[in-house]
Specification:
Length: 210
């Protein structure tokens, strides 16, 4: 019995002594790790509207094969835009065209890009109306066929237009697409056309919209 009491007293003395030591020298501090010090990353939000001037979205000669030359490049003015387009919130636009010519073979190809900036909330309506307008051009003998095409921007569609009665056998490809608050039309037309080149050109055009 006496031994048990002595052991209990010894334990109590050791506990009290430990508390005194902690109060004198302090408890060890926890050093914050790099992960603790690193700031919490803030979520980034992409601007839904383009921040690039429309002229800077235009294709340039280096975007095309070396045998193409610049034919025309200009801002759009309001008289060139339909009243319906203006009602949809059209604000400004730009166009550029290039062509390649082989006079010996009567071979001509043209590439044209038009860029329009609209009110962001109207982009789907703009696309739907432009697509309906293209569909309405399929009047006999003109044949208009929707083509498989890599997805571009928010929404896109591509067509090939031919006329069996045309002695020059001109083919026209038309691609329309929207990205952010920009609507674009890219056409390739001529006696010689290149579907793969068209895909490359359209992808370059879409990449310029930032």
């Amino acid at each position: 019995m006496k031994k048990s009491i002595a052991a209990l007293i010894l334990v109590m003395v050791l506990v009290a002594f430990s508390g005194c030591v902690d109060s004198l020298i302090g408890k060890p501090q926890v050093v914050p790790t790099t992960a603790t010090l690193a700031p919490t990353p803030l979520p980034t939000t992409e601007n839904p509207s383009s921040t690039v001037p429309v002229a800077d979205m235009a294709l340039q000669l280096p975007d095309l094969p070396p045998d193409y030359i610049l034919r025309d490049r200009s801002v759009m003015i309001r008289p060139e835009v339909s009243e319906l387009t203006r009602d949809l919130g059209w604000r400004q636009g730009y166009f550029v065209s290039f062509y390649r010519l082989n006079a010996e073979k009567d071979d001509l190809t043209r590439i044209r890009q038009s860029i329009s900036l609209f009110a962001l909330e109207n982009m789907k309506k703009v696309f739907d109306i432009e697509k309906e307008d293209l569909d309405s051009q399929a009047v006999s003998p003109v044949m208009l066929d929707e083509m498989p095409f890599p997805p571009i921007g928010s929404r896109s569609v591509a067509y090939r237009q031919t006329d069996p009665t045309d002695s020059l056998h001109v083919t026209t490809y038309t691609v329309i697409f929207t990205k952010k608050n920009i609507f674009e039309t890219v056409t390739m037309s001529g006696t010689t056309t290149d579907y793969e080149l068209l895909k490359d050109v359209v992808q370059k055009a879409a990449a310029k919209i930032q």
